[in-house]
Each structure stands twice: as C-alpha cells, then as structure tokens.
Amino acid sequence: MSKIISKSFLLLLFAVAICCVLYPAVLLAVGQVFFPFQANGSIVNGPDGKPVGSLLIAQPFTKDEYFQPRPSAASYDGSASSSSALAASNYALRDRVARTLGPIVKYADGPKGGQLVAPDIETWFQHDVYQGAPHILAQWASMHTADATAWVNTDSLHIGYVADWAKAHTDVVAQFVKSNPSIPQPAPSDLAVTFFQTFSNENPGKFLSPMPDTGADGKAVTVIKPVSTGGDIQSIFFDMWRLDHPNDSLQNIPGDMVTTSGSGLDPDITMQNAVYQLDRVSSKWAADLKRSPVEIRKEVENILEKNSFAPLDGLAGEMMVNVLQVNLDLRNQYGTPQ
Q1: CA 101 to chain centre
Q2: Distance of alpha carbon 270 from alpha carbon 255, whole angstroms
Q3: Could you give the CA distance from residue 103 to residue 3 in angstroms, rounded to a whole number?
Q4: Each residue's pLDDT tens digit, 255-280
Q5: 129: Cβ–Cβ under 8 A, 6 or more apart, which residues?
Q6: How far apart are CA 59 and CA 71, in angstroms?
Q7: In the chain, where the domains are located
Q8: pLDDT tens per residue, range 206-255
C-alpha cells in the first residue's frame, strides 16, 4: 500500500513539474525570445515613450481628429468583455443604433446628397412638431419612459437638475403624487416623464445638455442648460426624425460602425468604416493645421493604406485597419490635436 502511495505521489510531483513549471517556462522563454511584443500584450507607446494601449484591445477616441472604433457593449473595459446580446427585435438595439446614426448619416442623393442629416434633425426639433402634434420632447418621454428615466439616472448633474426643478414646481409634483399615491416622496427618476412633459411645454424646441460655464469662484464648471442644437439632439431624436421623413434617401452605413463585436473590444475596423470617417478626420486636421484639405486627405489615405491588412495574409475576409495604430500614426505625423 505504501509503495502505491509513494509511486502516486512521485507521479503527481512529476506531472506538476512538467505541466506547472517546465511547460510554462518553455512557453515564456520562446515568447520572450522570439515574440516579445505579442507575448507582452502588444503594448504600444505614444510619442512621449509612455504606453498608450494594446493593439489587441479597443479603446474610445472622442476627438474628431481621430478614427473611432466599433461601439462596445463592455464600455471598452478589458475586464468586462461581452457582447450586447440584444436581439434584432429589441428596441434597445434599435435605439442604440439610431443614436449612433444621427450625427454621422448622410443623404444619399438629391440637392443635399453627401451632406449630413444632423443639421436638419436640429431644425426639425426646433419646429417642435412630430407626426403633426406639438412638443416632440414630451412625446419622446411618453413613448420611451425607460429612456427618459435612464437620462435622469445617467449623471449626477441630471439628477440635481430634476431635483431643483421639482422644488420649483411643487404643484406639478403634488399632482404627480395625487396620481401615484404609492409614491408619496418621488425621486428625480420617478418624475422623469412628468419633468420632460413640463419642460417641453415651457421650453418648446429645446433639450438639455451639459455645457461649460464659470462658477461663482471663477473656475470652469459643467452645468445642464437648455439647448436647441448639439449631438444629444442629433442622436436621441434621429429615430423620430426618420419616422417623420420616411421618404428621404440616406446613405448606407458600414455595419461595424453601429454594431458591437462579440467581445466588445474588437480593436480593428473595416476599411469601409475608416473611409466613411475619412472626411471628418481629414477636414478636422486640415482646420487644425491650416493646411489644404486635399493634401491632408491624401496623407491620411496613405496612413490607412499603410496600415491596412486582411485576415490570413489577405487570403480571407475584407481589408481592416487597427484603430489605435492608425491614430498613433496620425499623432506622430500631425502632433497633438487642438
């Protein structure tokens, strides 16, 4: 019996030494000697020599001078990789895609062919009529109560704004409590729909967005203000604008501009996606540098071409570019955006 136990113990030690020590050590040595860049996470450095990210994990870029990655259901968090798992019939998917389309989609033909629809969304919103009825914002809040509530809960500034509104509209809050006796002390999120309905009546053609301001101490602060233009209006109300303008012909958008990947961290975009963003990126750099838009566009096209690749060395799939690598090349060539 003792002989069997001793042999089993020696076998266990041998297996542990092979699988947990020798094998990982060999892989580590091979990786560090022959593939050090990949083995250490494909980390790349910025112009100052400091790491700026991994070529394997997407990260958000918000400045117009840079190409933007695919949307991420994981908020580009490497520790929370996931897909949205939303079915095609899910309104949340339609709403997210519509919000992405609003600021970027263009007319396909006609006198405005190639122009963004965003300015027309703002003009339509300012007229404050949807499907022949007034008060677009009130209709939106009534139809999409979850979105209205989410807007309030998204930011502490939003919560504070609605709380201040409630203090100034005690009669409206009292009527809400009377109609909802189960909520005797409504929180700002409970009042979301009522708030937007009242705000829409008092501020036709206006929405609320964070804006820079100066505080009492002279320091820069961000406050919520009524606005009639801006990205929030373009994105949130694009779907309603589209339903009001069903016959307008719009350009097709590359699918990976509005759909998330299975991981939510896909670092690459298709060349069609990059080309669709090319006008925005090149025109912004041209404005920053006060150079010819034609020259800048050609240079950015060369950067895209230099960084393009296809899976399996071009044997399968379509041409792609790595967003971080392309943006780094833009930074190296043109410097820091204004």
Answers
A1: 11
A2: 9
A3: 76
A4: 999 999 989 999 999 999 999 999 99
A5: 136
A6: 10
A7: 2-37, 43-84+260-334, 91-244
A8: 999 999 988 878 888 999 999 999 999 999 999 999 999 999 999 999 99
